[in-house]
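Notes from hallway chat w/ T.B., transcribed later so I don't forget. T.B. wanted the structure written out for a chain they're using in a teaching module, and asked if we could keep both sequence and structure tokens in one place. Agreed to drop them here.
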Amino acid sequence: MIAANTISVDSFVQSKPSARSCLKCVLMHRFNVGSKKPNYKGLELTATKSDKVDGLIVTKKAGPQDKTLQSSSSNSTSAANTKLPPLVVGTIRMGFGHHRIAYATSSWGLDSKSGRDVYFHDLLNIDSEEATMIHEMDKKYSKGSRLASELGGVVESFWGSLTKAGDEDSLRVTYQMAEYMRPIISGLDKKSPIIASHSLVAAAAVAAGFQNVINLVIDNHAQWFVVVPGALNLVQGPSNYHNFLKMGVPSDQLQIAGHWCPEDLVTDIPNAVQRRKDRALSNPRKPLRLLIPVGGAGAQRFFVSSLIQACAPLVKENKVQLFLNAGDHPHMKEAFLRVLDENQLEFNTVDNMENLKAFKNQLMDPKAEPSKNVTLFAYDDYFTAVATTDILCNVADVLTCKPSELAFYPIPKLMIRRVGDHEAYSALRASEVGDGTLEAREIVDAMRYIDLFIQTPELLVEFNNAIEKNNSIGIYDGCKNAVRIAFERAAAMT
């Protein structure tokens, strides 16, 4: 099974698997890929301008009439050959987190004035057997997340233990699947620097022979399957860095970069912080704006609905405003509509990008307030669902979310009940750097924080002061640094 592998995972983890581990890896690999045999021939790819992000170029499988990336490269004139290979941002549309980090990275690449195009390479956007395999795997994960969140108890405990049990075998299985992904990444220019927001993408790039591969390590909990042998693994904070070194990850394949944050949020930190402080210290006090998104797996329905119900009296007293992002999940939209109706809360609905931007632009005026204290954001398209939270962060007072990738964002955060146990460590990171709370696992705990935000505005001021301090030492510059490092490595390789 591993004879043709590009990389030896055993060498990377510095151990040989036991007979039991070998059996486990074989069974898990069979579960992931079925009876499919690896195909190392690369698919022909093409690229088109994004209709979502100005300047971004999106890859897809080439059709019969499309100019392929390979032919574009080989048939270029000598003058055109002076153009640098593109920066590739690789991701997988699994939940919202990996895509959110990829878009954040792309924003810094587009802003870099490097002379390189920025390609957004989502493996699920490449129509292929390999993409179908990933999609089926993601469906199983999303279903597990939703069941754990809804059922709680033993089911939640079991799911939580699975999500933080990333031992050496989990990396062996992840890398083995990456070998099967080679066809949907091999069609890219091998000279391109690749920044991956999902370890499977980084591992596939290494397997396909790319030399400048950067893996953006998610979360704040060190597990083997989130690092990639043969890539430079960038982490968001020191505790992950220390723990990976203790596990045995080579120091030349590991580096601290900072938090994964988009360019517009980072550059607007001074203005956003001042807006939030002014609201917190206003007299009379302006309503507390809570931005409450749901994750891409669509979990948390029961907890978030209960939180809205608990907030209803404060909403009616004009002490709280709710920005509810149901994303592109019909079941979450229905749940939000139900709890709003049951609590007789009036609300407005935003269902497209144009109205979303208009809503945000209106609230950039310090004197402006929404016409109703609850706004429901719900969409049919995936991109707007992901982008909504990022767009609204600068006009919200507190981001109220599970300790996911959003735990690292430069906005005061109320960390609510996690879905997987690995997320607990991200809440600790937010609390340690002073821009978020500890995890509030019960409604009563979350409401205690909300009451504190209303009654003790100094707490919100302190959160925002911490964000300013963090920004001054580059804590939120992770994606910016990843792009810089990718370009520096590319220059060194020429």
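Follow-up for T.B.: The mean pLDDT is 92. Might be a good example for the class.
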